[in-house]
Structure formats: C-alpha cells, structure tokens
Structures
1.
Amino acid sequence: MLDLTPILDAVRLAADLTRRVQQLHLKGSEKTGREPVTIADYGSQAILCRAISLAYPDDAVLAEERADQFVTLVSEESRAHITQLVSSVLGENVTETDLVTWLEHGRGKEAERTWVIDPVDGTKGFIAMRRYAIAIGVLEGGLPVAGIIGSPGYNEGLLFHAQGGAAYMQPISGGEVHRIAVSSTPNDAPNPHVVESAEDSHADHEGLLQLLADAGITSPVLERIDSQDKYAMVACGDADLYIRLPREAKPKHKVWDHIGGTALVQAAGGMVTDLDGSPLDFSLGAILSRNRGMVVSNGQLHERVLKALADWKVPGT
Ligand code: AMP
Ligand code: MG
C-alpha cells in the first residue's frame, strides 16, 4: 500500500510555514494585501512537491500554484522572504531556484498516479484567521484512492488521512492516530449538523435553507466553515451533511478543492455526489466539468437531500 508517511510529515511542515506567515503578516496587524497570502501558498506547495519528488519521483502532480506566477507576480523581496521561511521550516538552505523547481515538479507528466494539491485551501479563511486546509488527493485510474487534509485551524490543529479504504485523524503537532467514521445520525433526523461555505460568493446560502426545508430538515444546526475542513467534519462525525449549492448554472469546481475531502469522506463510510446524485468525476483535468455542486453526507441522510434536489430549479435557468 502507498506509504503516506513522508507526505504527512510534509503537510506538518507546510502547516508550520502557513502558521508562521499568519503570525508574521496577519495576526494583530493591518492586513498587508494579497502578497503575504500568496507566499504561504507558494511555500506550502514547494514543501509538499519537494516531499513528493523525494518519495515518489515518477508520479505526476497537479497543483494549484505555478512557478511562472511566483516569479512574475511576487516581488523580489517577498520571494526572498518565503525562500528564507522555507529554509527555516525545512532546516536546510534552499534557494529561490529550488522553490521554482519544486513548484513545477511533476506537472503535465504521464504517470499511473497523480498527486492533486491545494497548498492553502480556503485562502479567504486563512486571511481572516478562520479555517483553511492543506489538501492533497491521490488519483489513480481517475479515482481518488487516498487523501490528506491538514487542518491547522480545526480545534488545536488536526491532520486527517484516508488510505486503503479507512480514514484516520491525529493532532497535527503529532500524537496518537485514531480511526474515524461518519456520524450515525439517521435519515429522519430533524436537526442534523449541516456545514456550508463561509463565503457568500462561494455558495447559495439562502437556497440551502430552502432546500433543507424541502427535505424536511426543519431545524438544522448550520455552521459556515472555510475549505475542505467541511469534508473532514463529515468524515469524523462532527457534521452530518455538507451541501454546496453553486450560485452559477455552470460552476467550474476545481479538482483540488474536492479530491482530498472526497477520499476522506468515502473512506470514513460517507457519500459524496453532485446535486444530481452522480459521483464526482476527477478524471477530466483541473475542472470537475461534469459535476454541479456537492452533497456530502454520512450516507444515511443522502437520499433525502437528493430527493429534495430532484425538484430543485437551478438559478438563472
Ligand atoms: P470553500 O471555503 O468551501 O468555499 O472553498 C474554497 C474554495 O472555493 C477556494 O479554494 C476556491 O477555489 C473556491 N472559490 C473561490 N471563489 C469561488 C466562487 N466565487 N464560487 C465558488 N467557489 C469559489
Ligand atoms: Mg482551494
């Protein structure tokens, strides 16, 4: 079976880096714009891709950030700063050229296995000191076969992974690894715990309330959470349902925003589909072009939501 240990270690290092960027640039100070955030994205991706290049050099990588943008959009000063931060986190001297090489590692390669990476998922949450995730999914034959979600803002910081059909959780700072499973909240529960995007622009929050009412879920416990932490919450039973109702008729969901979470929820015994009840199709490149929205559940509540969705009118159609 695929050994995730070196990549789990890299996610811990990446979390160390993103936390340092938050401490240095965001906490208690005036927000200094987008650049500090992007350096966290680039630094995290460099650390993750470096680990993949060492442990699985022949595998392909599909990662959100690009080296050409790092060089052209980030100032020289910020590039030097992130290079120094990555050196400090790794405990070795790295150069800007190393970062550029790692950022592009495995891109466009033909391989049996692809690592799909969102180095900072939930950027708006990251900036606002809310939740964000360091998310990785492993794709083989078009299917998610493993996943890692590093969640620095979930309780004291949690690290989730799925592999070989089982899902696990541990403190991100290290400690005991526990097997996790979805909740046993039954199909007819009136008040399941439902999670949705924190950002209004990312999902139709008013629509969700209507949909839940249509499904007979009259008193949901609703929580707004950034990033794939929502999938992790369903996987470990902290939430029963995650529904993503896009505002657009043809949304362009990114593969890296969903694959790690999907692997985790499925391995924990839950279900992930789009609003039509179809599985998410991860075989089409960077965009989930065959899927609209997501229903993520403990399995038991799934049918009820899909039934209500059968009569759902897509806004703008
Ligand atoms: P979430 O916190 O679950 O809303 O997911 C965050 C992800 O949503 C980001 O990584 C983006 O890729 C994606 N995103 C950004 N803008 C939008 C948008 N306007 N509509 C839908 N998704 C978006
Ligand atoms: Mg993302």
Note: DSSP finds ten helices and twelve strands in the chain.
2.
Amino acid sequence: MKVTIIAGARPNFMKIAPLIHAIQKAQQEGKAIDYRLVHTGQHYDKNMSDTFFEELNIPKPDVNLGVGSGTQAEQTAGIMVAFEKDLMENPTDLVIVVGDVTSTMACSIVAKKQCTKVAHIEAGIRSWDLTMPEEINRMVTDALADMYFTTSEVANNNLRNLGAREGQIHFVGNVMIDTLLANMGRLRKPEVYDRLNLNEKGYLMLTMHRPANVDESGKLRRTMTEILNNVQGLPVIFPIHPRTAKIFKDLGIAADNLHIVDPMGYLEFNYMVKHCKAVITDSGGITEETTVMGVPCITLRDNTERPETCTIGTNELIGTNPDAIKPALDMLFSGNWKKGGIPELWDGKAAERIVGILTAK
Ligand code: UD1
C-alpha cells in the first residue's frame, strides 16, 4: 500500500511525526506500506515549520509545494493547484490528512476529485462555529473522507449523525498525544527560563492567534491588560504567532511582567507548559496537551471542538470577552482549579493503531 501524507501548518507537524514513525516500524517488520510526504508550504518560517521537522525527527518532505501566505481562498486555491499536479504525477492508494488547517481541506478535495481515497486523522470533532475557518475545513474534509480516525466518542457520534458508516469510523486515540508522550523525556529548557529566573509554577504561558482575539486592536489591548493586571505580578511568557506579532507591534503594550518571545520549538514550548502555573490560550491543540500534563488551562474561546478537555481535563472555556479573565485568574490563584483526568485512548499508541488498521487491509 502506498500512502501520501499531507502536512501544511504548525499544528500538523506533531500529528504526522508518530504516523511516519509507526509506518517506518511497520516497514521494518516487513509490512507492505510505503509513504510519500507532501508539505504544502502553508507555514514556511523556520520557527513555524523546519524546527518541528528537526526536533521531532520527521524526514524531509518529498516535496514542498511552497504555497505560503494569502487569504483563505488564495491559500486554498494555491494548495489545490499545486497538489493536483503533484498527485497526478505521483498516484497513491490513499491520501492521509490530519487536523483542520487549510491544507487539510484543500488536499482532500483534490484527492477525491482524482478518485483517490482519503483518510482523515482527528476526524469528527466540531465546534459548530462557522466563523472559524478550521470548522469549515473540518466539515468539508469529513464530508469527503473515506476513513475516519478519531480521538473521542463525541467525534464518533458526530460522524454517525452526519451519516458515516460504522466501518468507516476508527476510534484510535490522539496522535498529538503520541508525540507528547514520546517526547516527555526530551523536553528542553529554553534560554528564557534561566534568563528570567523562572521557577516551577512561578509563571504563566500565553498564546493567542485567533482573529476573534487578535484582529481588533482595542480588544487585544483590553485582553492583555486584564491578563497582566490579574496574574499577581507573575511573569507572562508570550511566544507570539506571526499573525499576532503584526498587529501587536503597533499597540505599544509593555509591562514589567510581560515577556514576548519568538514562536518556540516543540520541545521548548512543552517544557514551558509542563512547568508553568497555567496556560492562557486560544489554541485547540494546546488544550489537549495541558489536559495530559494536568496543567490548568484558560481558553479564550466561546466554544471548543475538543469538549473532553473541559469535561475530563483541566481546560476551562471563558469566552472572548476580556471581562471573564479576572474571575478565571482569581479562581486559579485561589488554588481551586479542577484537577482533571486523561481521556480514553490518549495513551501514546494512536499512530500504531492507525497503521495497524491500514496494513490489515
Ligand atoms: C493556521 C491554521 C490554524 C492553526 C495555526 C497555528 C488554518 C485555517 N489555520 O492559522 O488552525 O491553529 O495555523 O499556527 O489553516 N505566517 C508567517 N510565517 C509562517 C506562517 C504564517 O509569517 O510560517 C503569517 C502569514 O503571513 C499570515 C499569518 O501568519 O499573515 C497567518 O498564517 P496562516 O497560515 O494564514 O494561518 P494561521 O493564523 O497561522
């Protein structure tokens, strides 16, 4: 069996790493599976892309489509045009897409129009919020895919309700957590930790890049003020996404306890998360990592496609209104944050299960 694996943006890279490693292991065991890795080039900065390949030991992609930045339509179209040509020249039995980024959707459409089967890893999750481009990407991808690899029973049910057949749904666990567990012993202290004299649970981590939080400068300013005024003076470390950085640089927000740094590599970022008092974020994937590490997580979103991080894990959705930040931080500092548990099958073996299913066919 020949598969083509698609990766395009930062949150894809930690999801493909365990898949490729599981394929390599299956090959060593004599299983008939071969892969080709296509990087669409949606993310292209060293610290948004290359670093992850190096740190997570992901082989160099067979091709980089070099699509780069643009509007949603420009990126989608650019990826489709480039991948259509690539797939015609390199036919495959199955295109494997992960997550919910623009590359996931664009490559699924191209594959199906060339009558190539598609498998979606992290299928079936839904925020039901169509103002997020990721939700549209999930809906389109799942409408087309032939095989669904899922992270939760909620995702399974969403797919059933959308008409997926039982034989298409494979509840395998979470590949992102495979990567986290595989690298827990390799996490690396970044330079900023000693430079700022940080210590265990003595600082907070902040990440923000969603349009609802960062595109409007007045709101971004209020959000930052509420955070900085209510962390009891603890340092806030903010690895800033390029999208946020563009808006942030004109705002002139500065505070003694605010430390803006470049986007971090995987091993350094998760070292910082593991040792911090809490994470404030608008990411989806990070809420899964904090759940597994048992770190309190305050999410600046109105909804989540990963409800188990709230119902089982340490995550709390507080919405995008900056007024909600103080009560959440007060709760954190009162010492009463929920402890949380680990969702079913988030055990580090999801990729192995996926490759087991693929090679059993
Ligand atoms: C994308 C994903 C999102 C994911 C996020 C994580 C979609 C729809 N969204 O959003 O799900 O959580 O990545 O990073 O696919 N930029 C750079 N360098 C890069 C990449 C981007 O400077 O390497 C700039 C672009 O020029 C653009 C902005 O960052 O201005 C946004 O990039 P884009 O890929 O459009 O979406 P993200 O916001 O990164």
Note: Residues 9-11, 42-45, 48, 69, 100-102, 133-134, 209, 241-243 surround uridine-diphosphate-N-acetylglucosamine (CB under 6 Å).
3.
Amino acid sequence: MSAGTLYLCATPIGNLEDITIRVLRILKEVDLIAAEDTRRTRKLLSHYDIHVPLTSFHRHNYRKKGAYILNLLLKGQSVALVSDAGLPGIADPGEEMVLLAVAYEVPVVPVPGPNAALAALVASGLPAKHFCFEGFLPSRVKARQEKLRQLQAERRTLIFYEAPHRLSETLADMLVLFKDRKIVVARELTKLHEEIWRGTIAQAVAYFDPIKTRGEFTLVVAGSTEPDSFVLCPVNISDPAVEKNILVQVKQLENKGLAKKEVVRQVARQFNLSRREVYTLVVQAKKAER
Ligand code: SAM
C-alpha cells in the first residue's frame, strides 16, 4: 500500500484573509488535520466552513501524536499539519513531524503562505538580501546573553521571535551586547493593532513598557555593520508615554552625574530628536514639578 501525504499548510498569522486557495482546498480534502492549537484552528476552519476531523499536535504530545499520525500516513491516509499560525516547522514542533515522515519515506508537500519572520523582515526597512533567522532566544538569562554574544559579529540582519513578557529583558540584553543598533519591533502583524516600530535598541528599551506590553512580537535587528538604507523615525514627542520614557532616560543620565548639556545631547541622539526638543521637554517637566 502506498503511503499518504503529509501536507504542511501555512495559516494566517492574524488576518484570516491571508490564506491561499490551495491551502483551503487541501484542508477540505485531507483525512485529518493535525493542529498545534486546535482552538485557533477550529475558528479558522469554521470561518471557511471546513469540516474535517481535527487532532492536536504540539510540543507536549508530539512524540506520541507523531507516531499516531505516522501510522495513519503509512496506512495511506493524508494529513494536513497546521501550526498555531504561519508556516508549520518554523519555531514549532512541525519540524519533528517532517523528520519522522522523511525517515519513513512518506511524501511531504509544502503548501506555503504567511510567516511572521519574513513579513517583519520585508517591512522592516533593514537589509533583506541576507538575513539570519534565530527564532526564540533561550528564556534563561545566561543562555540568552551567551546566544546574543555569539551573534555579536553577525553581519546579516537578525530576526527573532519574542514573547511579550520577555520583550523588555531581551531588549535590555541586546542593548548591552549589540550596543545601540537599529531595530524594528513588529507587533501584531496583519492584526487590528499592527505596529511596525523603527528605532534604535536604546529607544526600544525606553518605548516598550515592561509591564503593559501585549501582543505577538517579531524583532528585526541590524547586523554588525551599519546599514545606510534605514531612516530612523522620530518619536512622537507629544505622546505622554514617550514623554515619560524620555524623562526617565534623562533622570538616569543625571543620576550618573553627567552634565546637563551632555544629558540632553545623549537623549536627543537616542530618541532621534533635536537637542532643543529635549531641552524644552526637560524645562517643562521641571516647571510642572514645582
Ligand atoms: N510558524 C510560525 C510562523 O511561520 O511565523 C511561527 C510560530 S512561533 C511559535 C510564534 C511566534 O511568531 C510568536 O511568539 C511571535 O514571536 C511570532 N509571531 C506570530 N504571529 C505574529 C504576528 N502576527 N506579529 C508578530 N509576530 C508574530
């Protein structure tokens, strides 16, 4: 008996319209859909009126479920693998299923579509000719810093996935190890609150609130050689959150004992503002304090 096919179907990373006609057809035709997050996939399937048996395949059950799915494939059934979002096999256990299928000579067919890393890269404004995808950094501080240290000399544009509760820590580590390079923080791509934030790592440390930050993030960081194609966005100085972050930065530098002129110079550079803008903000804040 010939084996069935394992289809790797890309699904939307936010906007449900980002799905190909071919993915929809295959999802309708297969015997089984194996999904990383069955709740999320069920929503997608019901949106497109697809009624095919669904099973879970995620990082907590991939060994057992992998064997079960392989068995079905070897019996001639066809299975569509879908991840939580995007392309299965990129920073998710899809890769394990592919290894298993390849080992047993089961045909594997990619059905491409959305992917968060590439969507962030192409919109970043950083060099996209050569890049390096790193996925998630280790969650343990020492291991994360070591990984960033290994990447310090990497000349290609770097792409990372990051969880919202770890964003601030990661940005702080990047500031130490990558210094103040250009960074693009792509948040909630293709969703209602999509934000493609461009600035330097120091500005990002100041901009993203360690507690209130929510959503899904992809970070695109300049390689070790400075790209000249990238234009920094000036921050919106009338935004109270930005104003607060600038003043925090001013206070920190003042506390280090830097002269007022030097504080203004450094903060202006960090936030891509004129020295006059920073000076006016500081004077206004001091007046308001009195
Ligand atoms: N396989 C997926 C792909 O092809 O994009 C990635 C899976 S990985 C487990 C999920 C991570 O991708 C999230 O934690 C986040 O870092 C990133 N991500 C997913 N959707 C995103 C979005 N809409 N905007 C920004 N980043 C996103």
Note: Confidence is low (pLDDT under 50) at residues 227-231.
